[in-house]
Amino acid sequence: MPAERRGSGVLAQSVGLPLAVLLGLLVLWEICVHLFSIPVYLLPAPSLILMDSIGNLGTLGLHTLATLKTVLLGFFFSVAVSLPLAVVLTSSQSAANAIYPILVLTQSIPKIALAPILVILLGTNELPRIVVTFLVAFFPLVIAIATGLMAVPGDLLELGRSYRGSWLQMMWRIRLPYAVPMIFSGLKVAVTLAVVGAVVAEFVNADAGLGYFIITSTAFFETPLAFSALILLSLMGILLFQLVVLIERLLFPWSAANADKTFG
C-alpha cells in the first residue's frame, strides 16, 4: 500500500503538476486577451487557436507529416555519421586534430545563412532541408558521443588490456557500453534540435511543412493558424524526445535508471 501511494504521488508530481500549471497559464492567457481586448492578429486566445486548429486539421496534418519526414531523415543521417566519426575522433589524436576544426567551422556558420546557398547547390527539393536538419543535429551528437567514449576510467581500459583485448573488443565491450548514457543524452538533444533545423530550412525553401505554414499564415495575418503550427512543433519535439527516452528505457534500463536518479 505505501508503495502504491508513493507511485501515485510521483505520478501526480511528474504529470499532474505540470498539466495544472499549463492549464492555469492557458486560462490566464484567455482572460488577458479578452480583458485587454488584444487584436486577434497580435495574440489570439487559446480557444480561438483550438477552433481554428480543428477547422484545419487536414491541412495541419499534411504539413506536420512533411516536417516530420524532414526531421526524421536529418536525425537519422546525423546518428549514422556521428557514431563512426566519434569513434575515429577518440581513436586517433591526429584525426581529432584534423577534423575538430572543421566541425567547429560547420557549427559556427548560421544555418539560416547557409540554407539559401544549399538551395543553389542542391536545388529546390527536399535535400537542402535534410542537410540543414542534419547539420543542426549533428554537432552536439558527435560531441556527446566522443565525450562518452573518452570518459571511460583508465582502470577499465587497463583491465581490458590485461586480457589482451583488441581495439575492436575494447570499443565494443568497454567504451561503447560506458558511453551509453552520454550517447542518449546527445540523442535527446539532437532530436529536438532536428525539429528546429527542419523549420529553419522550411523558412527558406519549402512548399510544405509547418515552417512553410507559419510563413504563409503570418503573411495573411492568420495568427491563430501560425500558433497552431507552433504548438504542433512543440508537441513533435516533446514526443520525439520521449521516444528516445522510451528506447533507452527498453534497451538500456540501467542507463535510464541512472538518468532518473540524476534528474529526479
TrEMBL record:
- Residues in ABC transmembrane type-1 domain copies: 64-248
**What GO terms describe the biological role, i.e. biological process, of this protein?**
transmembrane transport
What topology does it adopt in the membrane? Answer: Multi-pass membrane protein
Q: Where in the cell is it found?
A: Cell membrane
Where do the TM regions start and end? Answer: 71-90, 102-124, 130-157, 178-204, 224-247
Checking Gene3D superfamilies in the record gives:
MetI-like
Q: Which InterPro entries match?
A: MetI-like (IPR000515), MetI-like_sf (IPR035906)
Protein family:
Belongs to the binding-protein-dependent transport system permease family.
Q: Which PANTHER family match?
A: ABC TRANSPORTER PERMEASE PROTEIN HI_0355-RELATED, ALKANE SULFONATE ABC TRANSPORTER-RELATED, MEMBRANE SUBUNIT
Can you say what this protein is called? ABC transporter permease
Task: Name its species.
Answer: Marinimicrococcus flavescens
